[in-house]
User: Which sequence fits this backbone?
């Protein structure tokens, strides 16, 4: 069974499929790649001239999703984290972070603030809450035993004129 959960803020409509640019990255599930994913997404999204705040929101959201794929999805094995970033129009960014790890049984519960399955108590259970609050739309699709796909959309305040 595949589970899906979408959280969408009212002000963002579904963005048009108007692809302007795209990058696909595949990274092994090593913790060093959390920072690499963060940096690559920052460079790529910069072409839209985001504000400092918008850029740091996107970097944090990517970082949370990639960290989850590495520490939870691939908790007891190595695997590949698949990241796709699309510029959909002159100011919309859609980011997909996918793993082929253990999957999530109950997505609704997993997305609750402070919920964590970390046995060591190092995690605070706030990753999904960060993604949800920093982005306009968050969709989580997961199949236990097969993996998880997190899709996040953010529409920036100012359209990049060069893309109009
Ligand atoms: N890609 C994933 N694969 C499997 N389980 C996941 C994945 N992402 C999240 N989870 C599950 O959802 C729970 C909540 O994730 P969330 O990111 O909100 O908190 P956390 O990772 O536990 O803590 P924090 O992000 O604050 O360090 C995780 O503890 C884990 O059980
Ligand atoms: Mg997390």
Assistant:
């Amino acid at each position: 069974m595949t589970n899906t959960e979408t959280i969408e803020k009212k002000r963002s409509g579904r963005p048009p499929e108007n692809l302007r640019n795209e990058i696909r990255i595949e990274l092994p599930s090593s913790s060093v790649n959390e920072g690499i994913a963060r940096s690559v997404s920052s460079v790529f999204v910069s072409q839209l001239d985001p504000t400092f705040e918008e850029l740091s929101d996107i970097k944090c959201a990517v970082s949370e999703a990639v960290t989850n794929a590495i520490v939870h999805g691939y908790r007891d094995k190595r695997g590949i984290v698949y990241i796709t970033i699309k510029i959909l129009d002159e100011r919309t960014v859609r980011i997909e972070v996918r793993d082929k790890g253990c999957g999530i049984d109950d997505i609704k519960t997993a997305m609750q603030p402070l919920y964590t399955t970390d046995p060591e108590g190092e995690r605070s259970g706030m990753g999904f809450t960060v993604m949800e609050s920093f982005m306009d739309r968050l969709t989580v699709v997961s199949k236990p035993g097969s993996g998880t796909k997190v899709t996040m959309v953010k529409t920036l305040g100012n359209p990049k004129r060069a893309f109009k």
In short: The chain has four helices and six strands.
